[in-house]
Amino acid sequence: MNNLKSKWEDQEQAVKLAIGAGAAIAGLVFVVKILPALVAALGIGAFLAILFLPFWLPTIIAFYRKHPSKGGILALNFFLGWTFVGWIVALVWALSDNTGRAGTQSVIVNTTVNASAGAPPPPHYQVGDVINGHRFDGAAWVPTQTSQQAPPVPPAAPAATAQGDGQTAI
Fold first, then answer.
1. Helix (H, G, I), strand (E, B) or coil at 152
2. Residues 76/89, Cβ–Cβ less than 8 Å
3. How would you list the strands of the sheet with 134-136, edge to edge?
4. Residues 97 and 67: beta-carbon distance below 8 Å
5. DSSP characters over 109-140
6. Cβ–Cβ < 8 Å for 132, 142
7. pLDDT digit string, tens, across residues 56-108
8. What pLDDT is attached to residue 55?
9. Is the pLDDT of residue 27 over 80?
10. Are 25 and 36 in contact (CB under 8 A)?
11. Around 137, how many Cα atoms within 13 Å sit in the side-chain half-sphere?
């Protein structure tokens, strides 16, 4: 930069004036002849960009989101995007769920079988319950004493009552 500055200072006044006049003429030609054509070209380009981007928005979104159906969205947008309905369908499709789970459902099947519908449910034991010398620890029956007794047999369900006398039949 210093080299260019020193060359400019070394020039005579007439040369500096000629360079300045040439630059002024070149600037005037640029403003009068080239700038209107440039503005017109940029105006048409901006107009096309304004039309281009919204038209291809569904395809741009699909490719950006790495949608598995981006080719179909591109084809729909290309062939039917000029119709407003085709463009809306392509946009909705591009914004739809693009993971593999979009078309799957989770189904939970309850397979509990009740062998005897009229029998009462089995008793529910809690941790610490003691029956026949065995204590329930939550997973198994543990003997409370050192005797060699067999694991407890859960008590039998009460028998059905007699017809209205309030006593149970054994």
1. coil
2. yes
3. 130-131, 134-136, 141-143
4. no
5. ------S-TTSPPPPPP-TT-EETTEEE-SSS
6. no
7. 999 999 999 999 899 999 999 999 998 999 999 999 999 987 776 656 677 88
8. 92
9. yes
10. no
11. 8
